Amino acid sequence: MRRGLSSTVVMLVFLAILTSLVVPLLLQLQSSYVTRLLEGLPEAGVGAARLSAHAVTGELGGVANYSVSDGVVENLTIVVRNWSGREVPVEAVLAYVTCGGTSRLLALERSISLSPRSELWRFYTREVLSGFCPDMISVDAVYLLTSEGAVVPLNVVKPAVVALPPPTGGERREAGLARAVELIPLPVKPSDTVWSPLSLLGKYFTVATLDSASNPTRVDSSTPLMRGSWTLSRELSGVTIAVENQRVYNVWLGYDPLNSSRYNIMISARGISLRFGGTSEAPCGTSQYVRVLVYGFTSEDSRGILSLGGRWVKSPSNNVANYTFLDSQRRDTLYLRGRAERVLVYCRAPGSTTGYEPYVMLLATSPRSGAGVLFTTIDRTYGFYNSRNDYTAELLDSSLRPLALVYRALPISNKNYTAVSITLNYRFHDNEGSDALGTSVDLPVIFVGLVDEFGNVYSYRSYNFRELTRYEDTYPPVAQAQSSVVFIPLPPSDTGERTFYVFIAFQDPYFYSVNNVYLDDLDFTLLIESFTVILFT
Amino acid sequence: MTGRRGQADLLTAALLVGVALTIGAAMVAYFTAATSTYREEISIANLLAYEASNTFINIVSYDSRSLNLWLVLKRLDGGSSNFFIAVDNSTSYLPCTQISYYNPRYDEDGVLCNSTDECPTSATVYLGPLSKVYVLWEGTLVDFLSYARASEYPTAEPMYVCSVANVCQLEDSTGLCGRVTLVRIALPKAVPAVRVYLVTLIGGSPYVFGVYEVLLQ
Questions:
Q1: Do B20 and A17 touch (CB under 8 A)?
Q2: B2 in a domain, yes or no?
Q3: Would residue A319 count as lying in a domain?
Q4: What predicted TM-score, i.e. pTM, was given to this entire model?
Q5: The complex's ipTM?
């Protein structure tokens, strides 16, 4: 009996110890599970954008309005309204603008506060805006960023009519319901840097490239690029320059669009010796190929602008190829002496790519016209289908990415216009003596057309080499004037509003290939004299 | 005889008490370990929930020409700690060199990010496999690789987690931070969508607590 009792006591003690240890642990574990289940775990995938209660969209709003003059934003007005009954701290007023060819995000205002039921007015003049960027073409979007993180877009009112300055040479035609806007020749002002053609073009156009060199579908924001390497060796301004009977290969001569009593000259040569002021030098050495770009040249010699083989040139020829291939048959030497506003010397250098700067010059072919665009890849001479075209493979230049110019200051909406005609006047001259036979394939040189607001090509017309070469003579060099009209109907406005922009692109598509040794090695000169848009309402 | 029986009972009792204590100690050790793991998981879940409800992200704009995407980040609790983000461009995760943030202190001309001082590049705080990044999913912590597979997010290795400095740290402001941080993501090419993953670091390991998707086309 006692024995049974003691065993029971022992068992009770054992169970008491075990229970006192295990039960609290189990309860704690149970409560942990319950806590965790009641937590309501955050769904990680939903994201953190849960500030809708803090966002004040609807209570805040405003308008931005700007005007354009000479292709540049003249003034910008911003009105912001706070309809709410509380003060709204604003982190910044942000604006997306187009400066030259690039877009920039600006903080027009920072750390301001909007009083309850109030309006904030801000007016920015051209001087103030030029502090942000000198060549603001358009204001694309304006946002109000509150300190709470809400982003409120303002309604941007774009200029309804693009007020382009009257072109220097031509005139704007008003015929019936049509309106003509001349984009090239470029209007040029005394403050413009004519010697920096791409930045001056960027004042009116978005400088870009195309997604394809043969069949473009989009305008691409990448930098246009040439295959062939030049390095800028000298850049002088306000200098006296002399070329004293030097052998040169080509001269392209035109009027300075700023002042028709001055001239813009591009010279290609090898190891040329130049005299700047009193000192004579060979900026690229005695054997290197060189391109000399002379802007705003005034001759000191009363006999003419420059002399080629002893014959004085008194005014530029409208045949822009007239002074090319000087070394091929007559071995004419160049003499000139005078003052230049700016001289740039490019030396041929080892390397693979370069920008379009050494190949492009703005000049006028008549004393009254504005700036046309000259593009040339010719450096030395001409050849045939069975010989090298530019004398040596070293001088064969071509485009890696075409140079595309999109005129953003003229939005063409299908609500306002039904069709567009684009007219192009140009001159073309190549160094392929066999013309079309000197190529194995026909490739496009110029593209003209429309892109939509997203950069997609809506419609275009390409100008291929074999078409262009029909109207030129390689030697004696003649670049005949050619022209064309491209008519593009816009989609009907009841299919939805769309906005289009005019573009022009050009390139040298021909690059020497090993398989067809002397084919496809041509270089050429292209002068775009006029590029005009006619809008049909 | 009685004395011997008493001794035996005492021995049995001592033995049983010993066994009970051993089992008890083992149970204590096991349950302590188990509960601490659960507690750790709960505290991570709580932390992630806190971060998710206190981190705000919003799109400012996207420029299809320069391929720049601008976002704002803000802590709603007024903290000025840095933000950790990872960004995918629909196919892979962007390196931190593509992500920069606006420092208004060095902006003198009002043009955002036209110099490197006013737009420092984000720092890489994690560069490694997706499997070493964690995410709270369906009530448990799982590796991000499984989550990305299930959610059809990119699984291309590696993943970059980038540190974006809070604007209040750049401005040396005191008190609660009431400002927003502007972030610029430079996309290498045009893509249909960009996702921004909000990340926090716990014990040196990255945990994703939010996804923000921006459709660009």
A1: yes
A2: no
A3: yes
A4: 0.52
A5: 0.76
